[in-house]
Design goal:
Protein name: Lipoprotein-anchoring transpeptidase ErfK/SrfK
Oligomer: single chain
Radius of gyration: 39 Å
GO molecular function, one term: acyltransferase activity
Number of strands: 27
CATH architecture of the largest domain: Beta Barrel
CATH class of the largest domain: Mainly Beta
Number of domains: 3
Largest sheet: 5 strands, mixed
Shape: elongated
Number of helices: 4
Distance between the termini: 120 Å
InterPro entries: Big_10, LD-transpeptidase, LD_TPept_cat_dom, Transpep_catalytic_dom
Pathway: Cell wall biogenesis; peptidoglycan biosynthesis
Strand order of the largest sheet: 21-20-19-27-22
Pfam family, one: Big_10
Length: about 375
């Protein structure tokens, strides 16, 4: 009996050391899962030669952005804004040439876990920059024949790129017009017909960062807002020996004149549509070629750089209204010259007909000498 009890006791002890078939096997600890959200940036970290007009964009997938900071080399943050859903952010100002920028972004994923991104990039360093100016300037009031001129201090190799950056807005009505490259360093915009009186004009030349080719970039944006004045047009039919002034198509003044000599085409007042370029209370008409020295005339209105003016010439009073004896200018009596001078605006058209000669395209302003179809073809975008 004692052996049986001992045997049973041993079996019981052996059973107590065996694994319970109903208990699970132990497992290793599970690490935290990676965040589901991911932040990306354009330009990417370490990008080089980034265009200064490129908007820097930060995006998050499967989450929302909490903070984004883009910092320039001076430690100032670049202006930017979030999208309404905070899934993206972009800059709202241009970058600087040849600079290094740092960005840092933080966000929260849809799983509640934080994510972040940091990086740097550098912008393009131009071989050179080209400066531009716009005329008319801000707040000017000009005549209905005034063109818009954008002038560059060096010729841009890529004219199309430059022209694409230019815009003209008019109110209260839209005015049809076109850009034309009249020089390698100058592109003008003029309407198909004279401007409507009292038009408001805004010119935007968004040229900063524009690639002109040959390593050159636009130096700065330039703008101008100006107004068109009343409609006044001067008409001179040279054989008639008179100068007529029209407002809104109605004749408002007629002045006897002596124009360029009829017999000599070199001394004609040449045919063509010009504009008032300057108004000078006293003009200097000295010209050694013709023996003129210290010749001053009052109420001088320049209409070309070819040498033509409208001005008083009391010394030629005997021929005013009777014969054409000038060397190309429109001579008026002093009182008439003063009356016209006081009425003139820069940009007023002056239409000349009846001469033997045509006005050459050598003046600073010859826009209206070019037919409309030819003018349109002078655009770099045609």
């Amino acid at each position: 009996m004692r052996r049986v009890v001992a045997l049973l006791t041993g079996l019981a002890l052996l059973a107590g050391c065996s694994a319970d078939p109903a208990s699970p096997a132990p497992t290793a600890p599970v690490p935290d899962a990676k965040p589901v959200a991911k932040i990306t940036a354009d330009p990417a970290p370490a990008a080089k030669n980034v265009e200064v007009t490129k908007a820097v964009t930060v995006r998050i997938a499967d989450g929302e952005l909490d903070t984004v900071a883009l910092t320039n080399p001076q430690g100032k943050q670049v202006e930017g804004e979030f999208a309404a859903d905070r899934r993206s952010w972009h800059t709202t100002e241009d970058l600087g040439f040849g600079k290094s920028y740092s960005y840092a972004a933080k966000g929260t994923g849809t799983d509640g876990k934080p994510v972040q991104l940091a990086g740097k990039f550098t912008t393009v360093s131009p071989a050179s920059t080209i400066r531009a100016t716009v005329n008319p300037v801000d707040d000017a009031v000009v005549g209905v024949g005034m063109p818009i001129s954008v002038k560059f201090d060096r010729p841009p190799a890529d004219r199309a790129a430059a022209e694409k950056a230019l815009a003209v807005e008019t109110s209260p009505t839209e005015v049809e017009g076109s850009w034309a490259w009249i020089k390698p360093t100058q592109v003008d915009w003029r309407p198909k017909q004279y401007w409507p009186a009292h038009t408001k004009v805004k010119v935007s030349a968004n040229l900063y960062g524009v690639k002109y080719g040959d390593g050159a970039y636009g130096k700065a944006d330039v703008t101008s807002e100006f107004a068109i004045g009343r409609n006044q047009v001067v008409k001179v039919h040279t054989p008639d020996h008179e100068m007529n002034v029209y407002r809104d198509g109605a004749k408002v003044a007629s002045y006897p004149s002596s124009n360029g000599r009829d017999a000599d085409p070199n001394l004609n007042t040449p045919n063509g549509t010009l504009i008032v370029m300057t108004r000078e209370p006293v003009g200097d008409f000295s010209n050694p070629r013709y023996g003129y020295t210290n010749v001053k005339k009052k109420w001088s209105v320049r209409i070309s750089n070819h040498g033509e003016y409208i001005h008083e010439n009391e010394e030629n009073a005997a021929n005013i209204g009777k014969a054409n004896t000038s060397h190309g200018c429109v001579n008026l009596r002093e009182d008439d010259a003063k009356a016209y001078f006081d009425s003139a605006l820069i940009g007023d058209p002056v239409e000349i007909t009846g001469s033997k000669a045509k006005m050459p395209r050598t003046s600073d302003v010859f826009d209206w000498l070019i037919p409309w179809s030819e003018w349109q073809a002078m655009s770099a975008l045609r």
